[in-house]
Amino acid sequence: MTPIQAPYPATRFRRLRRTAALRDLVAETRLGVSDLIWPIFVTDVPGADVAVPSMPGVSRLTVEGAVRAAEEAARLGIQALCLFPYTDPTTKTEACEEAWNPENLSNRAVRAIKAAVPELAVMTDVALDPYNANGHDGLVRDGIILNDETVEALVRMALAQAEAGADIIGPSDMMDGRIGAMRAGLEAAGHKDVAILSYAAKYASAFYGPFRDAVGASGALKGDKKTYQMNPANRDEALRLVARDLSEGADMVMVKPGLAYLDICAAVKAEFGAPTFAYQVSGEYAMLKGAILNGWVKEEVILESLLAFRRAGCDGILTYFAPDIARILRG
Ligand code: PBG
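Above: the input record for the complex with PBG. Below: its predicted structure, written as tokens.
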């Protein structure tokens, strides 16, 4: 319903752009600190708590460092952290047992953070890649990524995370049937209030490169993830995946990567009206941060890139810029 626009000079769009106050008054979308989820990398490998070269400004943190980050998040008004472990290579096996060890790095970090900052929401990643000798998100036999066997392992992993105190479980593995299986497992174990943020539309993307460096999976990964992550050419499939995951018990859904998939974000929000998140992934961070550090673009590109997600209809964004943008938004 586009109203009839009176011709110039009755309509001068520039009138409402004249001052910051007027521009703010008629801003159609806003970005708030509470729209952000901050992904952090944790490690307990001696000497691995160092800067990630392909993600300038991002470091792997010890568990104590992660607790300090959680305290900083709370101070800045960030409502949620998402944890990714850089695991000791000697614990990686083909069967990935470390993934559901109640005392694994990620579960210890969740407990430490929830003890120190209970009001902060903690999200965990459900996928086998940090624990897998071959770097894949699923169990592998004869070069095939096994679906149903992987789902069983993922349920065990999700239960251990819920037990450790995770508020939000984030399955990023792209196996079929995992959401329903996890939901049933959580209910049966008495974790009925643990939320699932499904990586529903996750594309097989080269934008994940720096992340794989950060979690130490780059070297291990044999081949690519194209038999389980989505083809970047597809849009209808994303909507079918979101419908499927919501029907299986996902509370929130995610589109990943972000900027190159804004059309998917907009379509998902318009079609389902469910809480919809975008992941501004490591490669997007690296591109923007690299250009900022080189002086090629201004830091304002961060806010501009995040506003795009809000305009596309996203309720929130996972972004490594979360603490930077929180500081900028708070002036
Ligand atoms: C792994 C996982 C990946 C990311 C989040 N969880 C990488 C992958 O699928 O290979 C990527 C996040 C980023 O690039 O920032 N299950």
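Notes for the reader.
Residues 125, 127, 129, 137, 172, 208, 211-212, 225, 281-282 surround PBG (CB under 6 Å).
DSSP finds eleven helices and eleven strands in the chain.
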